[in-house]
Every structure is written in C-alpha cells, then in structure tokens.
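Help! Submission page says 'invalid entity' but I think these are all valid:
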Amino acid sequence: MLSCLQEFEASLGIKIVCSREYEPMGTAGPLALARDTLIDGSGDPFFVLNSDVISQYPLKQMMEFHKTHGGEASILVTKVDEPSKYGVVVMDELSGRVHRFVEKPQVFVGNKINAGMYLLNPEVLDRIEMRPTSIEKEVFPKIAQENKLFAMVMPGFWMDIGQPKDYLTGLKLYLESLRKTHPEKLMDGPNVLGNVLVDRSAQIGDRCLIGPDVCIGPDCIIETGVRLSRCTIMRGVKVKRHACILGSIIGWHSTVGQWARVENMTVFGEDVHLSDEMYSNGGVVLPHKQINTSILSPKILM
Amino acid sequence: MVGFTEQFGALLGIKITCSQEFEPMGTAGPLALARDKLDDGSGKPFFVLNSDVISEYPLQKMIDFHKYHGGEVSIMVTKVDEPSKYGVVVLDEKTGEVQRFVEKPKSFVGNKINAGIYLLNPTVLDKIEMRPTSIEKEIFPKIAKERNLFAMVLPGFWMDVGQPRDYITGLKLYLGSLRTKAPDKLAAGVNIVGNVLIDKSAAIGAGCLIGPDVSIGQNCVIEDGVRLSHCAIMQGARVKKHACISGAIIGWHSTIGQWARVENMTVLGEDVHLSDEVYSNGGIVLPHKEIKNSIVKPEIVM
C-alpha cells in the first residue's frame, strides 16, 4: 500500500501521510488521533472523505458552499429512493441548515442521506475525545443543535460501494459520468461495447469483446479472444485466451485461465489463479490461492 | 432418416429397407413382421444388431463361430464387472453352448451378459408369433433348451450406449479402439489432444484445442478458439468462437454461441441454439429451441 501511495504522491505532486489506529476509534476518533497532521494553524477547513463511496466529488462547490454559510461543518447529502435503509438528514431546503439526523426512519422524514463526505473547520477537532466516537451519532448532532451544520445536496451520481455488487453499480455510474464529462478517456473501437475504461499500460489482445461497464487496471494483460462485461480487472491481472468474465471483480495480480468462465458476482482477492477451463459461479476467493476445480455455486473459499 | 438411409445405401453399395411397427412388437415381434425381407429362401442366417450398443463388431468371426457349432442361433456375450444389473448368460465355457438365462441374478451365476448382437438362422422366424414378443425371455430360452443356442465371448470393447453418459463412455472406448486398429483415421496436429475423430467435411478454425475423446460429424463448423473435450458434435452443428464444451452431446444442426460454456452431460437435441455467452450445466434440451438464458443446474428444457 505504501508503494502505491508513493506512486500517487509522485504523480499528483502531493504529500500523503498515514495515521494508524491501534484500536478501532469509530468514525470521529481517528480525526482526533490525527489532530497534529490536520491542524496546520491556518484555520482552513479540511475534507473528510469516506473511501467506500464514489461520486463526482464536487469539492470546489462544497468549499464555496462552506464559505457562504460560514458554519462549522458542511456535509454532502444525496437523494435516495429508499431512505429507510440509511441515516436520513433532515434539513432546511433553502439554507441547507441541518435540523437533525434520523437513523433508519420508520416513517418518511426526508429522502436525503449522509453521503459520507464532509468539510470541517479545525474547531470540530476540539469536540472529539480521544476514544471510539461516531461522528454521525455524537459529533454532528451537537453541531447541528448549535445551528452550525449545513448540508449540500450532491449533484450527480453517488454510490456506497462497500459491497462487491454495489461496487460494480458504482463503476457503471462512474463510467456513465465519464462518458459525459471526459468521453476521450473511454476506450473506443470494434472490440468495445458501451463504456469501458482501460489503463494505458494494459495490453488488450485481438478479437476480444469488452464492455459494457468494464474497467481494466495498470499492467493488465487481456489475451486474444476474451469476453469481459460488467467487471473490474485490477492491476497486474492476466486473463488468458478465450476466457469469459461477467459481473465480477478480479483482484490484483490474479490470473484467469484459458476458456475459463467467471460470473455471478465472483470476487477474487489478490494473487488468485483460476486454472484453464474452470468455472466460477459467484466464488468469493481469499488471496493467494490456486483454484483447480470449478466453483459451481456461490461460496467463500478461504 | 430416409435421406440418411439413402446416403449410406449409396456410400456402402447396399440396399436399406425399413420395416415399420404400428404397435410395439417387443424385441422379437419385429423380426416376424419383417419376415419376407429376412428370409430370402437361401437358408442363410441373418444378423440382428441392437443399435444402442457399440463394440468392435467382429462379424466374420461370428459367422465362422456359427458355422462351426451348427446351431440355430449365435449370440455375442460380453464380460462385465457387475452382472447383477443385467441378464446373465450361463454357458459352457468350452463349446459356448448356452444353458440358461438368468435375469438380474441375486447370487453369482456368471459374468457374461447378452451383448445384443445375434446371428439367427431363418428357422428362428418360425418360432416367433406376430405379437409383442421378447426374444431374450421367450425365444432364446426355448432354443437353449433344444441345445441350439451358442454364445461367443465378444473380443474387445462393448458398451450399452442408451444413456447419454454411457454414449460418451462408448465414444471413448470406440476411439481408443480406432487408435489401435486404424490410427490414421484419427485427427492429429497441434490443436489435437488424445483421440479425436473429425469428419472430412467438417471445418475447424484456428487456435482450437480439441480432445480427448471427441467426435465431430459431417459439415460441422468449429470456429476459432474453441475448446472441445469428451463430446460428440453431430452433423451440421456450428460451434462459435471461443466456446468451451466438455462432456456433452450436441445434436444435429444445433448452434453453440460465442463464449458459451457447455458441460456436465448437457444434451442438445436437433436444431437447438444456445445464445452467445450462455452457460449450460447439464441441460437436456428438446429439439427446435432457442436458449437465451443460462441453464444453471441439470434440468430438462421442453
């Protein structure tokens, strides 16, 4: 992970620092833990971004919104069809001021939920004790009571991608968004269907059919005659000839054998190798494994 | 089927006639029904061959054996490991004279069973009434009592190929026998593994891997990058690019789509079309069907 971070530091020209929890600190505790790194004395607010979501990250808009209302904390909210599954944010539609949070409401109180992206003034850190603390349940409600918490409705798509299935939906939304904003980043050609994103270092063989909703990472090798649809192929993966992968996630440096078939929300961890001609129907495979027999029905392989 | 008989008649320089039963006549009745065709007045014996078996058909040896013992009927018997599943033939090991038949014996009486290949003198026809009759249960025991029934142990392989799984086993045995007796009939090359029989009119694409134990019929088209093993591809079938078939029987004029996967004793009848990327796990599909969705577990599709 460290070398991955170094790569990004170099390519983006920024400094990346990790703060390590030795015991779980909840969703607010880690901020207190990293206090010294977060406060630089300038009084500038800092972003808090949950990494199990994907969206268009309208960070500049969020900064302007924060300046305009002058409150202590800004959060992004997103509209959903089934708010009862989430924590609903009840807010003033005009000003964005947050009244309260209701966790999994039984009756309809609103359809905006916490999108997991925050912009916080450094003073927020004074409210967080160095113990396991929930930012949504303990810290934000206090700030809301003081009328200092404001919510902005997320423009564009948002997806909680914590579950593999949702990860693939999030990928689809992300690629659709890319099609509108930066279509030149997507792959084109007779071997491509729909929206497909391929890292420039990946190699694609001839006579493949790739897409829709596929993303292929750095240094991947996709051999001749491969079919990929609705899947994510992580860095360094090799997919051998004539294989067919549908609706799945293939982890870093894994291999999918010749004529293999992978489908139905199969997830391979890092360094998983599926032998030639094997079938995986929803297998969830932990890292560093060789799979020599077919996985006929969804199950976890440890 | 008429076209088939005409084709083979021409090819082999013989006359093929069909006798049609309008009601089921058992295993002996049909012989009485076809009497006029079977008895040409010459007194020469005629073969009766059940078509749901496969063996090396040592017909000349059988003729010699029949002449030698001078009895009315010769039958082939074959050695099996589990005789209790079949009709066992109890015979004199030296002369081959059949003493009696025991259907599915509970205790061991012998390990030779009726292989379904007979050589009969025309006089047998006088013993068969024009009604549903069983040759094994009614006719042969009578002839055996008269000490006129003799059995020869079948040299080489034998298989009852009535069930699809056994058909594939029979294919394997047959190809194994070809490898010993007429290896030049089998396919060879970098794309071939083990014993493979390909009709000269079939077209095989580039980058395929075929075998072991595969037979490909007349006018089949096997496109590029196809994997076939343990299967029979009937006349006129087309297997599209990158598909993978293992342990299956693909019926006449059927199609297997691109990147499809077919396995686990799938049987497709005549004119069955499996769409691109579809999976069949032991599907049994009746004729004249289009299969657009995967068959995930063994079932009959009507």
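Support: the input was valid. A stray whitespace character was the problem, and the output above is from the cleaned input. The mean pLDDT of chain A is 93.
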